[in-house]
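Researcher: Next entry: Large ribosomal subunit protein bL27m (Mycena albidolilacea).
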Amino acid sequence: MSFGFLTRCAVNLVRNPFSALGSVRTATKRAGGTVHNHGGSPGKRLGVKKFSDQYVIPGNIIVRQRGTVFHPGPHVKMGRDHTIYAITPGYVRFYKEKWMRSQRSYVGLVMDRGEVLPRDEAARGRSRYCGLVNLKDPVLAQSTIHSA
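Model: Predicted structure:
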């Protein structure tokens, strides 16, 4: 009798090794590892903000960048984080000039919509903005009189 019982236990152990230990719980889902740098910080919203032939006023940001992808041209300045912004009202122009063995990309402003950069200073002179009103121009003179 005891021999039959031992035989049955041995047969059960060979068939299922966990039957002698009782029930064993197994994973129903795969183990997930830890993720480094998950989420992180939000994007910095870099890039070109005002495109070619768009009108800007002083203080408008034209390009937000890391490093000098674009260099400042006429009537724009560069902030300490390399942000290029307008210092006069005008139309945005992007252009390239030869610099050493390669080319540099520049951003500048022109006063009139049809102008191109780089400006031919020998033929057209320097581009200057003083922010003054031409009182001899009848259209501007009327607008300044009515606004005052």
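Model: Note for the record: The first helix runs from residue 2 to 15.
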